[in-house]
Amino acid sequence: MSEAIIRLENVNKWFGQFHVLRNLNLDVAPGERIVICGPSGSGKSTMIRCINRLEEHQQGRIVVDGTELTSDLRHIETIRRDVGMVFQHFNLFPHLTVLENLTLGPIWVLKKSRAEAEATAMKYLERVRIPDQARKYPGQLSGGQQQRVAIARSLCMSPKIMLFDEPTSALDPEMVKEVLDVMVNLAEESGMTMLCVTHEMGFARKVADRVIFMDQGEIIEQNTPDRFFDDPQHERTRLFLQQILH
Amino acid sequence: MSANPSAAPMAPRARGSRLAWLKENLFSSPLNTLLTVLVAWLLAMAVPAMLDWLLFDADFTARTAQECRQAQGACWAFIAEKHRLILFGVYPYDEQWRPLLATLILIGIMVCSAIRYFWKPWLGLLWLAALTSVAVLMWGGVFGLSHVENDRWGGLPLTLILSTFGIAFAFPFGVLLALGRRSHMPAVKSLCIIYIELIRGVPLISLLFMSSVMLPLFLPEGFTIDKLLRAQIAIILFAAAYIAETVRGGLQAISKGQYEGADSLGLSYWQQTRLIILPQALKVVIPPLVGIFIALFKDTSLVVIIGIFDLTQAAKAAIADAAWRGFSVEAYVFIAFIYFIFCFAISRYSQGLERRLDKGYQR
């Protein structure tokens, strides 16, 4: 059995007095596609944000691709180079063009030449099907286009792991499909490890190797998509599925 | 008559007559009508009288003070007589082409820095060349130019030098202070807070006074720092504190998501700050920053307290001439006009800059 690319051991986190992550244990195999779902406040976003240190865990161990996540800045930087993240609100840089957004990371972090970075950027823009928007500013694009640019921006760093934090939750319904298509395409064609927090259950069925249900900071249930949706084991899972599958 | 059913109906054309505009904007309600009449009356009282005094009744060519006092309006002949004293202070009369050239170079370099075409790496070298040539021109002593001590410098070139160097050094220092104040390192944060609160707590005039009178007391025997340099440093330290707080406001306006987006790409603190955070933060605070620069330009007139001859002081010296007494209004209107030109130019430039930087934000 191959070494887990992400390992969470007894991870605990508090926001002040509020215990948001309770004794989390999770192993993610390389190339695995995981969808995490659960009610709001369950800690799912917090958990994946702990993986690239956007949030700090107070107890337990997190190991990403062999490097342990501590307050050592060098470890954090090493991990962030291999972990890409797509946010609910895109977080594109509004003062830079789409192309500049994509080449920023490769030029300044990966130390690539401008020509090389631009070539990579155009390649990924074609992959997310918006090569003609390269010279535009994010403010001139629709929500679905912006999110696809955000995905391309993370891909330009050639990460081993991609984290998605509710990537389609802020989009109009018509645009959700175009972003999901890109994510499905990504899952099928690359061998990338993907962790996705989402409410899009159709996407989970199509792409996920494992679906995890979290509630109140704990992992209640995890299973393959078919078994998860057709035969949930726990009462809380059943309640949740009833509410979102209408 | 058949309209094309699929064409969208045109929006009704606005009634474009001037009368309609007047009615809508100036006479739309009883209160507005009253205000319009009031303002029109005030203008009718003030403007013709002002124009008469400034232009129509003014004397431009009188040769003596007696002749000029006969005129009903302003005596601009006084300015014609005294303009070199006001503009250049007590700089040796024959060498006044040097401060004139220095002024033009300073204005030139500032205009160049404003034009986008010049935003290339060699702009730094251009600044260095400009500042060196200004120093050479003002001090002399080389290239056959006679040496002129800086206590003979005065007027407009001095105001420009104090403002330009002041802004040039205070701005980066202020940005660093703002970043330091938001730092998580307790020592850095405390030092920045102490500095900002101390400096903001005292008026510039007391800083100038302290730099001029108190500092020499603390320095070792025989070691003096040039008076102009002391004033310059005081101005830089003063402006930096205000710039710091303004920039800090801009930094606070940047949403957390920008920091997270930059973090997720693996950018270091300084890379993030330089490439992502500062460009956005500075753009947001252009209006108050420009206000600080404009105020600084005028605050340089306070150096009179330590005996440095800037533009305002030069105007006072011109008025003090016994042969031309009683024309203080003309002198102050003249320098007010000069200050206004510079401040207005800065203000217009900043509006143009804001418009240009907005283009990425419009759909």
The CATH topology name of the largest domain in chain B reads MetI-like fold
Q: Could you report the average pLDDT of chain A, rounded to the nearest whole number?
A: 92
Count of extended strands of chain B: 1
Biggest beta sheet summary of chain B: none
Strand content of chain A: 15-25%
The proportion of residues in beta strands of chain B is under 5%
Q: How many strand segments of chain A?
A: 10
Number of helices of chain A: 9
Task: State the separation between the terminal residues of chain B, measured CA to CA.
Answer: 38 Å
Summarize the topology.
The complex is a heterodimer of chains A (246) and B (363).
Chain A (H helix, E strand, L loop, with lengths): L5 E10 L2 E11 L4 E5 L6 H8 L7 E6 L2 E2 L4 H10 E4 L11 H11 L5 H14 L15 H13 L5 E5 L7 H17 L3 E5 L3 H7 L2 E6 L2 E6 L1 H6 L4 H10 L2
Parallel strand pairs in A: 3-8, 3-9, 6-7, 7-8
Antiparallel strand pairs in A: 1-2, 1-4, 4-5, 9-10
Chain B lengths: L17 H8 L4 H27 L8 H6 L5 H13 L8 H18 L8 H17 L15 H27 L4 H15 L3 H15 L8 H26 L3 H9 L4 H16 L1 H14 L9 E2 H9 L8 H30 L6
Helix pairs in contact in B: 4-7, 4-14, 4-15, 5-6, 5-7, 7-8, 7-10, 7-13, 7-14, 8-10, 9-10, 10-12, 10-13, 13-15, 14-15
